[in-house]
Sequence to fold (136 residues):
Amino acid sequence: MPDCIFCKIIRGEIPSYKVYEDEKTLAFLDIRPVNAGHTLVAPKNHSNNIFDITPEDWMAVSEVVRKLAIAIEKGMKADGVNIAMNNREHAGQLVPHPHVHIIPRFKGDGLKLMPQRSYENGEAEETLEKIRTALT
Ligand code: 5GP
Ligand code: ZN
Fold:
């Protein structure tokens, strides 16, 4: 059995506020919410992140994210939601079990998205080449 904090939550060994559960997924309140209603959607099967989750588990998680985004916005009377996933340590992943964050957002809540910039000359073309090559 994986010694993983989210697996322990899924097995019921650590308590959580369960938002939704089905055969393949569990959704529960994040213990340290950005805003109230901040929910994590995780597959019940253990893997690490987007790089090794099975397509079946990812599809199940994705569909639950879609349904819960609607319920969280409506239930929390929010003005929108952010959906985010951190994958690997240097992308900010703290818990190595795949999970998607659904964060309700409110007009004037003051949260900022990640900083953005412009492409330099030729950089967009080089970038496309790298990603398209990796796809084949
Ligand atoms: P990550 O940075 O890996 O995407 O996010 C992990 C999230 O899990 C954090 O937002 C953190 O607050 C949440 N978290 C960590 N431990 C627990 C826990 O024991 N219970 C719950 N409900 N959330 C947790
Ligand atoms: Zn796990």
Q: What stands out?
A: Residues 5, 14, 16, 28-32, 40, 86, 92-95 surround guanosine-5'-monophosphate (ligand 1) (CB under 6 Å). Helices lie at 5-10, 55-75, 123-135. The first helix runs from residue 5 to 10. The longest strand covers residues 100-105.
